[in-house]
């Protein structure tokens, strides 16, 4: 009996070790998805790649999922629009999407399925456009006075809409200093457009000095869009929008114009006064 009990315990231990080995093999066999970003036009077809390099996973173990912006995670079922390789022992388990629509934009994942675990790939972001080139919409939210009074700092928020989010870079130029800021990864909608934000905190002194703060968006490599903001001087209006030496020059010119206007006014008044005196003198002579 003792021998049977020991053999039974040994079999249980070997089974547990084998199960752990299988689990670790599956964990190491993470699918590799390439490329990380794909951009296509409406009506085209696209193939997303998913390769299993290690482990026991083949295409018959693979499933595809998609997460659309502002939507939940959902499984893709093969049909006329979606198709996967017919050879089930393939290692390249691609997904072909035919006649893509505007609402096909999203993050696509392949997943190796086993008895106990699902191992997801790194994901591919599919961006669907209408083929026309257009600029993203940039908007900077002006800071709150209460924050400056309470914390002696101010927060600037740059909102960027109508862009392929997973390929865009957003950062700030604060008076020549480049900083990344804090990116908001959650997508939001604004009039049907997908938007994301990047915020930065600067000191109240920097803001009150009229420092030029620029939000920079790199939509594609080498293609930049910018939006500027600075504190406006309520007493000088548009002059506060002109930074640095140019502002000083404009102020000097306005001062000189003001002086010239005063001198001209005084001169015209003197001429008018002299004319009046001449008329009075001539009138007294005639009488």
Briefly, what is this?
The chain has 287 residues and is an alpha+beta fold. Helices cover 29% and strands 36% of the residues.
Backbone structural class? alpha+beta
> Ends: how far apart?
155 Å
> Helical content, roughly?
25-40%
CATH top level label of the largest domain: Mainly Beta
CATH superfamily of the largest domain: Immunoglobulins
Following the backbone from N to C, one meets helices and strands in this order, namely: HEEEEEEEEEEEHEEEEEHEEH
Work out the radius of gyration: 35 Å
Describe this protein's structure.
The chain is of the alpha+beta class and 287 residues long. The chain has two domains: 28-129, Immunoglobulins (Immunoglobulin-like, Sandwich); 137-237, Immunoglobulins (Immunoglobulin-like), CATH 2.60.40. The chain is built from four helices and 18 strands. The strands form four sheets. Strands 2, 4, 5, 8, 9 and 10 form a six-stranded mixed sheet that branches. It has a four-stranded antiparallel sheet with strand order 1-3-7-6, with no helix packed on it. It has a four-stranded antiparallel sheet with strand order 11-12-16-15. A hairpin with a 2-residue loop joins strand 13 (169-174) and strand 14 (177-179). It starts with a helix and ends with a helix. The model is unreliable at 19-28 and 234-242 (pLDDT under 50).
């Amino acid at each position: 009996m003792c021998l049977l009990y020991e053999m039974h315990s040994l079999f249980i231990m070997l089974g547990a070790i084998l199960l752990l080995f299988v689990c670790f093999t599956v964990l190491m066999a993470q699918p590799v998805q390439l490329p990380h970003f794909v951009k296509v036009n409406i009506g085209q077809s696209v193939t997303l790649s998913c390769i299993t390099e290690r482990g026991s996973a083949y295409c018959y173990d693979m499933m595809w999922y998609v997460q659309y912006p502002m939507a939940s995670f959902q499984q893709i079922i093969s049909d006329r629009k979606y198709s996967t390789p017919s050879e089930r022992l393939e290692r390249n388990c691609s997904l072909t999407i035919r006649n893509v629509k505007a609402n096909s934009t999203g993050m696509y994942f392949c997943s190796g399925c086993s008895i106990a675990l699902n191992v997801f790939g790194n994901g591919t972001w599919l961006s669907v456009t209408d083929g026309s080139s257009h600029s993203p919409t940039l908007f900077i939210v002006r800071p709150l006075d209460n924050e400056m009074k309470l914390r002696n700092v101010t927060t600037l928020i740059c909102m960027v809409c109508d862009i392929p989010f997973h390929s865009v870079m957003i950062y700030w130029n604060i008076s020549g200093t480049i900083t990344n800021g804090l990116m908001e990864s959650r997508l939001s909608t604004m009039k049907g457009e997908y938007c994301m934000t990047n915020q930065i905190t600067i000191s109240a002194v920097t803001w009150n000095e009229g420092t030029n703060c620029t939000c920079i968006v790199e939509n594609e490599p080498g293609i930049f869009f910018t939006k500027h903001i600075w504190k406006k001087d309520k007493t000088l209006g548009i002059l506060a929008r002109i930074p640095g030496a140019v502002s000083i020059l404009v102020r000097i010119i306005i001062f000189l114009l003001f002086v010239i206007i005063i001198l001209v006014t005084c001169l015209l008044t003197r001429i008018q006064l002299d004319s009046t005196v001449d008329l009075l003198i001539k009138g007294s002579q005639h009488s």
